[in-house]
Input
Amino acid sequence: MSSSDKSGRLVRVAAGQGFWGDWLEAPRRQAEGGPIDYLMLDYLAEVTMSILQKQKERDPKMGYARDFIGAVESIWPAIAERGVRVVANAGGVNPPACAEAVRQSAERAGVSKSVRIGVVTGDDLLPRLDELIAGGHALANMETGEPLSTVRDRVLSANAYIGSTPIVEALSKKANIVITGRSTDTALTMAPLRFEFGWGDEDWDRLAAGIIAGHIIECGAQCSGGNCLYDWQNIPDLANVGYPIVEGSADGTFVVAKHPNTGGRISIRSVTEQLVYEMGDPHSYITPDVIADFTSILLEDAGENRVRVFGIKGRPPTDKLKVSIAYRAGFKAVGTLVYSWPDALPKAQLADRVLRERLDNLGLKFDKVLSEFVGASATHGPLVGDPGDPPEVQLRFGVRGEDKAAVERFTREIAPLVLNGPPSVTGFAGGRPKVEEIVAYWPALVDKTVVQTRVEVLG
Amino acid sequence: MNVRLLDIAHARSGDKGDTANVGLIAIEPAWYPVLERYVTRDRVAAHFRGIITGAVERYELPNLNALNFLLHGALDGGGTLSLKTDAQGKVFSTAMLRMVLEIPDEEAKALRIPGSKQWPTYQRSPKE
Output
């Protein structure tokens, strides 16, 4: 143990889910594989909220990440008997319904007497959008500057990213499980550390340290050997990859570790890969609680599969919250066909030209038509140079537009190419491409004073 | 000496809207100054010409032996709008590592930087 841990007490926050759809095994393995104090589960990506909003429109009892119920069910003994506390943004657009489902699960498991469920609400701005716009909040798109009024009638969901304070409040009211809506991913890790160590709301360096701890583990195994490019060939036992655990100290330093007898690898290099993931200006990682400075982070090898993180600086946050808005933005479809050697690429290129001519002849109009040649240079483009004569090339052809009928008509033009296009074509067993409604992301800012969170603890 | 980025750096990339970010990390701390000196904003903009439509920004993180690049207009609108296979910019990382730098022989030798002649047989080292 390093000298900074001299106060003795460590708080262990384990990551059990990096997105909705992550490994179902991970929460149970984290709860059972060794000592942890908190299990942090991050379910929400940018467009997840809109999917959940659509589910809630169909059924008012839905609109949360249902995987969370299974996760909790798999670890009731850890929660009810060993006192592991759970913090999750699984509530989506309906935290109360999520809490009710968890309560029912606790009853079924016979543990409801020892479980208190904290529910954080107030991030949902959808019911208040017109009032906000009328009140002079333009909710302009942070990338384009356009006011939200240009797409107001197509908005599906609108949620403010909220910080650690309501989670800390729920924990102080003795919730064993805290369910939030659109909390920032990083607050789910920072809040337990802030609560346990009593960090003040202007303790900028330590709050920033908690945020960076959250950034490192919010994508689950992506810091412990998953998707790790450096020396990937030699990363052991990915089948049993260990999800990361932050061992936090009162002074804001922490160690990134994982349970013994798990696979993967935690090293300075694996942690650094995660630190730079989705990074903007590293001097200013803006959260509702604090602005963290990634150029202050220092890493040190602390033994096998252990990295110590220290030196972190923070400064006061802005007076705005980011708002995640989702709106309907037309339709798209993507179709694929596979062409084989010899001359797989020229065959796929001919099919592409034929398809484009047929779409033109039909008078179909799209906002965007994109063809890629997977296996020849779909992702690295001209950087590849001459791809040679590969064994096969997949033509991947996509269209996007406001006119649903045009996109639907396009989906019927792929299959005919099998018989009336270039030769040696296969790989069309999936059938006609599906028309998807596009739900696009509109990032905006709103004054902090506009958003009031509420905390309720049940049980 | 010609030096391929793949042999002296590793990387991870991701998205923020229509912008891809590429974090480029020196494999050896001693090699970070080489990244800082040669992998300039202009060099990266030239590398991705025809692939991205917007500007390139560069940030330095000497504390992590890393550079962070923002590649604007990289993702056909980004997120769910994008028709690209790599709509979330996940493999701009390896696209970056295709870059080949020209480094004076003496500098490369002093830093034990693996050069082009070693490419066919070079094994990544040291092991962690």
The two ends of chain B are 27 Å apart (CA to CA). Chain B has one domain: 2-118. The longest helix of chain B spans residues 32-38.
